[in-house]
Amino acid sequence: MSLYRACCCEPGSCCNIWCSCAERITISFCKVVHQGEVYSCLFVEGYCYPPLGDLIGSSLRTIVVKDVVFEKKTGFDPETGCLNCCWYEPVTGEEQTGTIRYTRDEWLIWCAEPDGEDCVFGNRTCVGSATRPLSGNETNWNLTAFNGKLWLDCCDPTKCDSGSIKARLTFNVEGVSTAGTFTDCCTQTTDPLYTVVSFGVSYEWDCRDRSRWTGTCPCDLLQENGTGNITGNVTACVAGLTATCPCPGGQGTDYSNPCIVNQSASIYYCTEVSQSLECIPTGNGVITAITGCV
Questions:
Q1: Residue 17: phi, psi to the nearest 5?
Q2: In the chain, what are the domain boundaries?
Q3: Does the pLDDT value for residue 6 go beyond 60?
């Protein structure tokens, strides 16, 4: 650590390159999209099983974070121990105008009972969406975690005289929201839909020689290559259904908490799930925009 601090605190080091940049910038990220389908894997004559291969549930969940205000910090960086440094952290409180938005549109066959020669099926549904502020808590919204950092770093703290520098970004937000409805066919009830959301970003830009950083600011980062990822999660109405298609041996796994009327076994199923990113406008695959540098 002593070598790292000694390097970082040198005059003209990577720490102070952004000191002449804007006091505040905003960063927006790609949208995370979760999709899933649930299919029937078993049909038995005389029982209320959905026909083999029928769609018996689906889930579409999205989450996106936009326009997060980051503020320049100047001076001693408690994380690295560097002096005379400049980096960016998310603004907290009323001046934070960024938002987190999520959507849920989910249903799953949860009840079945005979009606003469036919079967009657009922669904569990979870439908809701909301845009919540990153400035703090409000009615039906509890922000439980909110932090991040954008900074410049030496690529090799043991060889700082090489002048190789990279930019790094971390960001994390979590919260609990109430919006929409949860409907259960078994209990014939409709209740407010509680949703836990989380969104995390980790990104590291490629190393460049110090000379290439001269005169740059955070907005220039979208033109540079790097690697990173987003983890975005929204509570799922069909959480825990993990048997992948095709169903092994012709059947999947039982529901963990089946609600099937007048039959001795649960509906057997398999699932197809996917996760993707939507980046509009096109960014670097994680970040869609960094603005406010001028």
A1: -65, -35
A2: 23-72+93-291
A3: no
